[in-house]
Amino acid sequence: MKPASFDYVVPRTVAEAVQALAGPGRTAQVLAGGQSLILEMHLQRIRPRLVVDINRIPELDGMRVDGDGLRVGALVRHAAFERADAVPGPLGTLLSRAVVNIAHPPIRSRGTMAGSFGWAHPASEWCAIGVALDATVEVTGPDGERALPARDYFLGPHRTARRPQELITAVRLPLLGGHTGVGFVEHRRTHFCFAQVAVAAALTVHDGVISDVRIGLVNSADRPVRARAAEQTLLGTEIGPLPTGRRLPDGHPFARAGRVAAQEDAAPVAEPYADAEYKRQAVAVLVGRTLREAATDLGSRLAVRQGDPR
Amino acid sequence: MEQWTRREDERLLTGKGRYVADIHVPGCLDAAFVRSKVAHGSLRGVDCTAARRVPGVVGAWSAADLPDLPPVPHTLLARLSTEEAVAGREWPALVKDRVRYPGEALAVVLGEDRYRAEDGVAEVTAEIDPLPAVVTPAAAVEDSVRLFDGLSNTALRGEAGEPVDPAVWREAAAVVEATYRQQLLMPSPMECRTILAVPEGDRLTVWSGHQMPHRLRRELAALLGWSTDRIRVVVPDTGGAFGSKSAAFPEFVVVAYLAVTLGRPVRWIEDRLESMLVATRGRGQDQTVRLAADADGRLLAYELTIDADVGAYPHLGVGLPMQTAWMAPGVYTTPHVHATLRSVLTNTMVTYPYRGAGRPEAATAIERTMDLLARRLGIDPVELRRRNFVPPDAFPYDTPTGRRYDSGNYAAALDLALETVGYDEWRAEQARRRGDPDALPLGIGVSCYVERSGGEPGGLHEFGSLEVHEDGTVTARCGAAPSGQGHETVFPALVARTLGVPEERVRLVEGDTDEQPEGLGSFASRSAQVAGAMLQHAAQLLIEEARHRAARLWGLPADRAAWADGTVHATSGGPAPLGLADLVKATGPLRVEDRYEAGMAFPFGAHVAVTEVDPDLGTVNVLRLVAVDDCGVVLDPTVVHGQAFGSAVQGIGQALYEGMTFGEDGVPHLASGFLDYLLPTYTEIPPIEIKDTCTPSPTTPLGAKGAGESGCIGTPAAIVNAVADALGTADPGLLQMPLTPDSVWRAAHAPRPEEGVR
Predict the structure, then answer these.
(1) Between chains, do A189 and B741 touch, taking CB under 8 Å as contact?
(2) What is the pLDDT of residue B553?
(3) Which of B619, B678, B745 lies at the smallest CB-CB distance from A192?
């Protein structure tokens, strides 16, 4: 297990990095956290001629709230999102619930959110959140900067709209408002492995009626999926009291949304121990459970705001 | 030393262990192998020319370049292989004309380091015409694709017990049938395989993480055409083996041959991806069972039919499934038991002992079937077992399959397990949940097992010695070879206890064939049982020798010299007591050695699992696992506890996680390493409670039985039974290990057919 031979450069600025990526006739890979890249290079499933290590570019580090969005620099590690209050409001809660599903703490201390968008693995938690929330991927290339909407960004497994000469400098996520509750539920065989299916949800309710809902599906197609058909079934629906039992009744709007997500939004790719039929089942179940978690989260937020100690 | 549980722990846990890869020999070359990417094919040619030009590459060879390269030897021990099975089926150390499993070595490259060697590997080209691959016994047994032209893929047939009279089945009140799959498993020790061969004068020193150094010496000597005294095998610290490190593998043959041919040190340090592709597998059986009982649940007859996947060559484990046949009856007095098997060659790496080695397959088959029968008869599975246990006064007990169980008290182990888990409370909770449509289904699974430890006839002995030094310290030597079992702690303590001297006065030397010229090694859970009994016996010999020497020194009859607390006393006054140091100073070197033969022992136990199943996703949550094991006299409770815990975790692995799938081309999906083959890790381990009962083995004065494999044998059926119990699954064929979420979800939603045949 060793990588094929490659050149290695350590630019100090974005401009230098872009220059390196644009070098003629060389397949290049960007090294941020390296938690996927280095393994794939060891396995020689990818054999870049050049590795551009961006870890010493100070301008890529840090995240900040910028207007109604969160801008996450390309060197921000997964671990930065482990605390729910690292990011304001429900978005912080959603990111913190998702991040604990990303591998193990040592991997989270190195891997980056922007790196996940660059790698574009269908089982990436961040990418599904990105498409659900309409994130933007900021890239810089020889021709300047571009902002790529997440919905147009993912083209397939490990395939994105980023051009090879472009460097992801940041991922921008919209902050979520006060009437929004969030949920994230992942299903996988062991804590070590990738999700068989996971679901992210953000549920916005005004006056008891669902006014906005975002559902992101992890590993439910060859790319991250926003479950728009499922979302449509919920818009304008009265949320009502949550059922008390463990299982959602089949007729509950969340259960119905789950079935729609499984049949209309998901396009599962069979894997060992998870064929398409099973993945659709998991999508249906997890969408229902995640929406319920989001509704519960919303309930507790409103209770806190109203001074209700529950 | 107080802060460390075992003597070896300070070294092993602080990074001071010395493994083969840590041994620096100047001028040593690293071997890397060119591996077949196809599972089955005709080799047209291998071209190593370009590899030889790579800087740092010292040489590159295919089989065609090494006409004198010896083939891989076959296992004679424990009937694991036979002359008949290997006849006409040579296993070349490098592929000659036919690739028979994916990853089989096509060529070897030696480099100044592993990196250079791998650069060379990348330049070797091979032309292979792919052939259809058969990777299951069902596919291979038809012989429509043959691994060896003109020879059947069925390399061995075997049976244990007598065929059951058809009238028994006809007249029985209940007969249940089922099919089970024992999936292929990977032993997955932390350290993969290693060998370092160093020519020195007319000798060869071989360092290897190995369970049987004397066997490795013998096999290497035979294939080099040398006398065994020209080879020294040394086993340094070894990072686990689980049965998978006791043979002379193809890569070992190549390394030893090239080291001798070139007159240079050569090593091979297997990496994880190689190991996952070409290290030996365990289990791999398709089983069909039939069990009959009368209306009271008394077992009448049991039939077990096995199609075993033994991999591409019959050299290492073709006879291993016999272990399952011999152990088929389990802990019950079933009067008629008949087990038959076919060992079938497939295009996979060879199946070989893996922790449990034939006994998990037997225990899981009978224990799952007992639950099936209990459901059929409407008897509690615990009660059904009780009615059929071999009773404590029936030992030694001869099974219909030819085993003689040495001792046991199966009901005692089960009682303790049920009391520990709180069986009645869990049954009450289960009943409560069945009345609550909103509760997750809960199941309780019991598995009572008996296994065999020590080895098979012809391999039940061990060699060793005790030597007293002038300072009174004692060096114990034996033929065992540890790969993590704690021998350095347990054996000196045993010798010290027998002699009555402080533990720190005794030191253990093992795993070096120059230090200990004869030995068998560590396998079949035999070290404590056999090597321990041998060392206890040697300590008795030492005491006798010391008494006689002192008596002669004192001019007294021998019976006037008595041994107590590490010294010889005259029984009635007279001379001052003599310690070991004084005795050596006065009478010269003091050393005893012997060969000691133990009997087979039959450890047993009862495991109980409580599981909760999410029927919507198929997730299995093990709420509780209780393992009660009886390995006779326990030498070191901490070490035995560690064995029980570790093997239970591996048992959980087989039940829930471990398994490999294959592509259409017969190549297993293992390209991403342990992402493709899931082991239970810390986060998957449920609460495990371990207890023991003690029924000494009568076969040695020590009374110890093997403790190393209990969880691998007892745990899987407990978990599968618990899941089946939770789901009320009538069709056992729906629940096959590993119980992955998708398979459990399907089982949970399958229509409920009528059970079995009658």
Answers:
(1) yes
(2) 94
(3) B678
The SS3 of residue A157 is coil
- The C-alpha of A106 sits at a distance from chain B's nearest C-alpha, in angstroms, of 15
CA-wise closest residue to B631 among B520, B528, B498, B521: B528
Q: Is B684 on the interface with A (CB under 8 A)?
A: yes
Partner A contacted by B686 (CB < 8 A): no
Q: What are the φ and ψ backbone dihedral angles of B230, each rounded to 5 degrees?
A: -85, -5
What's the order of all strands across the beta sheet hosting B203-208?
A: B57-62, B105-111, B29-35, B266-269, B194-200, B203-208, B231-234
Q: Does B685 contact A at CB distance below 8 Å?
A: no
Q: How far is CA B140 from CA A90, B58, B289, B308, B310, in A?
A: 57, 41, 21, 11, 11
Q: Do A278 and B674 touch (CB under 8 A)?
A: no
The CATH number for B27-131+189-241+245-278, chosen from 3.30.70.1230, 3.90.1170.50, 3.40.50.970, 3.90.550.60, is 3.90.1170.50
Query: Tell me, which fold does domain B461-597 have in CATH?
Result: Aldehyde Oxidoreductase; domain 4 (3.30.365)
- Tell me the ipTM for this assembly: 0.95
Write the pLDDT tens digit of every residue in B61-110.
Answer: 999 999 999 999 998 888 899 999 999 999 999 999 999 999 999 999 99
How many H helices and E strands in chain A? 10, 14
The answer for B 591-610 residues in CB contact with A (under 8 A) is: none
What is chain A's Cα-based Rg? Answer: 20
Cα–Cα distance measured from residue B504 to residue B254, given in angstroms and rounded to the nearest whole number: 42
Residue B744 has pLDDT above 50, yes or no: yes
- Give the CATH fold of the A180-305 domain: Enolase-like; domain 1 (3.30.390)
Output b/e per residue, B145-157; b: 16+ Cβ within 10 A.
Answer: bebbeeeebbbbe
Residue bearing tokens 């290997």: B86
Chain A contact for B617 (CB, 8 A cutoff) = yes
CA B391 – CA A193 distance, rounded (Å): 46
Please tell me which of the candidates A189, A191, A286 has its beta carbon nearest to residue B740: A189
Q: pTM of the predicted model, to two decimals?
A: 0.96
> Can you tell me the mean pLDDT for B144-152?
97
Pair of tokens at residue B623? 């709420």
Is the CB of A43 less than 8 angstroms away from the CB of B672? yes
Residue extents of the structural domains in chain B: 27-131+189-241+245-278, 282-453+600-749, 461-597
Whether domain A65-174 has CATH 3.30.465.10:
yes
B745:A281 CB<8 A: yes
Residue linked to tokens 């990348």: B122
Residue B2's pLDDT is what? 59
Task: Give chain B's length.
Answer: 758
Put simply, the chain B residues between 261 and 300 with a CB less than 8 A from any chain A CB are 271-273
Facing B671 at nearest CB: one of A4, A43, A285 = A43
Q: Does B740 touch chain A (CB under 8 A)?
A: yes
Question: Which token pair is A185?
Answer: 């539920």
Domain boundaries, chain A: 7-53, 65-174, 180-305
State in Å, rounded, how far the first CA of chain B is from the last one: 63
CB atoms under 10 Å from CB of B69, counted, come to 21
| In contact, A218 and A183? CB cutoff 8 Å | no
| Beta-carbon-side half-sphere exposure of residue B423 (alpha carbons within 13 Å) | 17
Best CA proximity match to A102, nearest among A38, A29, A188 = A188
The correct answer on CATH 3.30.230 for the domain covering A7-53 is no
Q: How far is A269 from chain B (nearest CA, A)?
A: 14
State whether CATH 3.30.365.10 applies to domain B282-453+600-749: yes
To the nearest whole Å, the CA of A190 is away from the closest chain B CA by 7
Residue B463 and residue B212 in contact, taking contact as beta carbons nearer than 8 Å: no
